[in-house]
Amino acid sequence: MCEALKELMKDELDAKWAEGFAEGRALGRALVILDLLKDLGEVSEELQRKIMEQSDTEVLNQWLRYAARADTIQEFEQKIQ
After folding, report:
1. Which residue has the higher pLDDT, 13 or 32?
2. Which domain of life is it from (predicted)?
3. CA–CA dist 52, 55 (Å, integer)
4. Cα 79 to the chain's mean position, in Å?
5. C-alpha dihedral over 69, 71, 73, 79, to 10 degrees?
6. Residue 78 exposure: Cα atoms within 13 Å on the Cβ side
7. Taking CA atoms, which of 28, 55, 63, 73 is between 20 and 30 Å from 22?
């Protein structure tokens, strides 16, 4: 891409990059939560879907703490209700 075009599209490219970065962070957190829960047992499709559909990283951060401290999947599910 030529420099002039890059400059013209800088704001749009920056916004797209930031959006993609945020989506990647959310996806990464969701996958870590699922990994932690899978150590506790079988994770239902419904719970997997709920976790994977969450895009708010603050919510996912809290869920990650819950998953790290949970003794059972049911305990985790109760906390995220």
Report:
1. 32
2. Bacteria
3. 8
4. 17
5. -50
6. 7
7. 73
Q: Look at residue 19 in the predicted model and tell me its pLDDT.
A: 73
**Mean pLDDT for the stretch of residues 77-81:** 96
Query: Cα separation of 40 and 35, whole Å?
Result: 9
Q: Locate tokens 């916004």: which residue?
A: 15
Of residues 23, 19, 25, the one with CA closest to residue 61: 25
C-alpha atoms less than 13 angstroms from C-alpha of 22 in its C-beta half-sphere: 11
> What per-residue confidence (pLDDT) applies to 1?
53
Q: Give the residue among 71, 73, 59, 74 at the shortest CA–CA distance from 29.
A: 59
d(CA 49, CA 33): 12
